[in-house]
Amino acid sequence: MIVHAPFPIRGRRLLLLAEGSFCAADAKTAVCLAMYRPDDVVAVLDSTRAGRCVDEVLGFGGDAPIVASIDDALRERPEIAVVGTAPIGGGLVEPDRSLVARCLEAGLDVVSGMHAFVGDDPGLAALAAAKGARIWDVRRVAETRVVSDGRGCRTGASVVLTVGSDCGVGKMTTTVELERAAARAGMRAAWAATGQTGMILRERGVAVDRVVADFVGGAAEALVNLEGHGAEIVFVEGQGSITHPGYAGVTLGLMYGCMPDALVLVHEPGRPHYKRLGHDLPGLRDLIALYESLMRPWKPARVVALALNTAALSQPDARAAIEAAERGTGLPAADAVRDGCTRILPAIRDALRR
């Protein structure tokens, strides 16, 4: 079930396709590539923001131009076009399909995390074959049928799973920041990608939302054992939320597949309701108790820290939210992107020692 990129991505010139949506709320893949691969991004396509650069729009990501058309983008000599958006339903609809077609016509390799596969579109597949372009449909999962046996990682590495109060709160970015911080601290660290954006960054992983439900645990188990080789700690990118009616299945599958030794709860302060739903989010203390109780039949994995996504808050409001979360839960908290992991990582290391 583990997928490896069929061609190299890191170090190649990237065009990010984000027509009409180059912002954190609507183009997660494009935004994360701009954050973590700024030297590779040579252009972003979004006609509604054309004439600006990435840093002007996001506040990070370098000076790659935002352009209005594929012709404009081709002047930057891209090698790979990445579909940078993930609309509800995951369909490859206009204008995205036409943009992908133009990229293939120009001989660019295409990477797409959509649920609808570019390679299954006869017209696009024919274009790729004619131009010698390659396609990576990131979510295409091999049909390996493995059921988790509950043993988790057997390489000797400790496993830390990021879990969320909701979907889209920053579990992937927290995971990446934790792995980077651990490596800087001299630890042999690795991270496991479980969603399309993480897989593009890592160039391997498992898109767990495409795995048949019975085998999500087995896929997660295989993934932590792959990433655990040669590592002392593996950070696993969480998915969804245990209380979200749409995504709780993948959340629990990851928990029981990778069998974490510790959990980090990721939350966006100020978000009162589930994303695109009107139902209230539970309190942090209730979520912590729920996650820990679900792990308890197998191992005493505790939520050891909070990672708060404060991107929408001013610095004073972010500090107030972090302090309130610490008072309310008794756990260390920080924004892993904004503040670094100097409070979160020591809590993880202390918990693993115990």
Explain how this protein is built.
The protein is α/β, with parallel strands linked by helices and 354 residues long. It folds into two domains: 3-137, NAD(P)-binding Rossmann-like Domain (Rossmann fold), CATH 3.40.50; 158-353, P-loop containing nucleotide triphosphate hydrolases (Rossmann fold), CATH 3.40.50. The protein is 34% helix and 16% strand. The chain contains twelve helices and 14 strands. The chain has helices spanning 28-36, 54-58, 70-74, 96-105, 122-131, 171-184, 196-202, 216-228, 248-258, 284-295, 315-329, 344-353, and strands at residues 3-4, 14-17, 41-45, 66-67, 80-83, 109-112, 135-137, 158-164, 189-192, 204-205, 233-236, 262-267, 302-308, 333-334. β2 (14-17), α1 (28-36) and β3 (41-45) form a beta-alpha-beta unit. α1 (28-36) packs parallel to α7, α4 (96-105) runs parallel beside α5 and α8 (216-228) crosses α9 (248-258). The two termini are 33 Å apart. The model has no long low-confidence stretch (mean pLDDT 95).
